Amino acid sequence: MYFGIDIGTSSIKAVVISDENEILAVADSPLKVSHPDKNFSEQNPTDWLKALRKTISVIHSKLNLQQIKRIGLTGQMHGAICLDKNSKLIRPCILWNDGRAIKESNDLNSLGDRFTKLSGNIAMPGFTAPKILWMKNNEPDNFSRIDKVLLPKDYLRYVLTSEFATDSSDASGTLWLNPETRKWDNELIKITGINESWLPEVFEGPDETGMVSSSASKEFGLPRVPIVAGGGDNACASLALGIYRPRESFISLGTSGVLFYVSEEHQSNPDKTVHAFTHALPNTWHQMTVTLSAAESLSWLSRVLSVKIDDLLKNLLSSKKRNTEVIFLPYLDGERSPHNDPNARGLFLNLSSSTVQEDLTLAVLEGVAYSFNDGKDALQESGASFKEILSIGGGSKSEMWLQIISDSLNSVIQKSDSSLIGPSLGAARLAMPFSESNFISEPVNKVFEPEQEQHSYHADKLSKFREAYKNNF
Predict the structure, then answer these.
(1) N- or C-end of the chain: fewer Cβ atoms within 10 A?
(2) Mind telling me the catalytic residues?
(3) pLDDT tens for residues 157-187?
(4) Mean pLDDT across the stretch 335-357?
(5) Once rounded to an integer, what is the mean pLDDT over residues 299-316?
């Protein structure tokens, strides 16, 4: 058996698979995000460990963990976990959707083409390097104590193995790794003014990086088995769907939204804020665009209206409403692609006295879909060519939402059962003895074809959506 662990934003998720790639058990435990100030988004890594214990306990109640052979790790990218010389946490983790490091990102981007050529990406506040520079400028005492900088899944690796290691796909989102060479880049490290000794060793996803220690085995109930390097959450999500060949793609409707495309080589387009990263398998690369508040936009509406998400969707479906004049910009926490604008904010337009709950729900679903349109255009400018697009993430439970996305993008959207398991399954597959045959394509159980009448409606509304951003931000 092989164990995959995913440190998500909203929960810790885990899955166990057999030698035959069969899913044997799944479990998760919720997490909370702290917003101590405007544009701030943090989590305490000790909460991850508490949630992990609960998750492992649930898995243990379903099967014998001693039969696990290896463990794979994945998780939210870009988070900055800083440890001192005694390997103690210096401060809470600054998360991927944190927008405080605006000045630091602008400073890095002002360095010109050399920086983006090496990193393959434009600097954004969500990436790791600007966060560390923000600490240098705003928390000098904490900055002076830094001895190691780790990404979320790699902090968990350290807790479980006492080893400092990462993989190239996750490290691509730090701005210290050159995705083309798949190694830390000395010039990027020098530019950002950090010490190379702070960074963990870089491995490829299937490589072993250490073994569960005796103390961690006792604390978490895991067997003393090897842990592989793993990968960033979206890279592992793609492996859960069997997506690693050039020109394959998926769309993720999680807390954030991602349009993911496997490229034939490292292909960057920093001007359109395309993320150009390595994949979690050796000698593979991918591109993606990010919507910071995808399913989170629907969760926000649920909280504001005090109506459960399932009820919002059920009410909309029952109303048979397919069109609305209301427009929603889903920029609750700023936006990545293609605007790179941490100060953008969510916005409803065209409200009237006749507006009802169903208008708001539909506008939120459409607004997220339109953000994916912006991402698709940016990726196509970078050389992407889309065919069918697989869906993944909690939001993909809504077939109505998937149909809206299909109509809006004018693309075929596919759904599979593994879409609800996601990155933890990809991490578990990386833990298997390496073979490309491990990364099987999951059977598609539903296909959403674009309806041309609805596509025309969305095309008209998309232009108004884009104009609304220009006029307001």
Answers:
(1) C
(2) 233
(3) 999 999 999 999 999 999 999 999 999 999 9
(4) 92
(5) 97
Each domain of the chain, given as residue ranges in start order, spans 2-235, 242-421+443-473
Cis peptide before 338 (omega within 30 of 0): yes
Q: What average pLDDT does the chain have?
A: 94
> At 421, is the pLDDT very low, low, confident or very high (cuts 50, 70, 90)?
confident
List, for residues 17-34, the tens digit of each pLDDT value: 999 999 999 999 999 999
Whole-model pTM: value is 0.87
The widest CA-to-CA distance across the chain, in whole angstroms, is: 64
- Contact criterion met (CB below 8 Å) for 238 and 262: yes
- Token pair, residue 275, equals 């993320």
Of 54, 67, 66, 64, which is closest to residue 14 (Cα–Cα)? Answer: 54
Please name which of 77, 63, 71, 56 lies closest in space to residue 7, comparing C-alpha atoms: 77
Of 365, 361, 368, nearest in space to 302 by CA = 361
CATH superfamily assigned to domain 2-235: ATPase, nucleotide binding domain (3.30.420.40)
Identical fold between 2-235 and 242-421+443-473 = yes
Task: With H, G, I as helix, E, B as strand and everything else as coil, classify residue 80.
Answer: strand
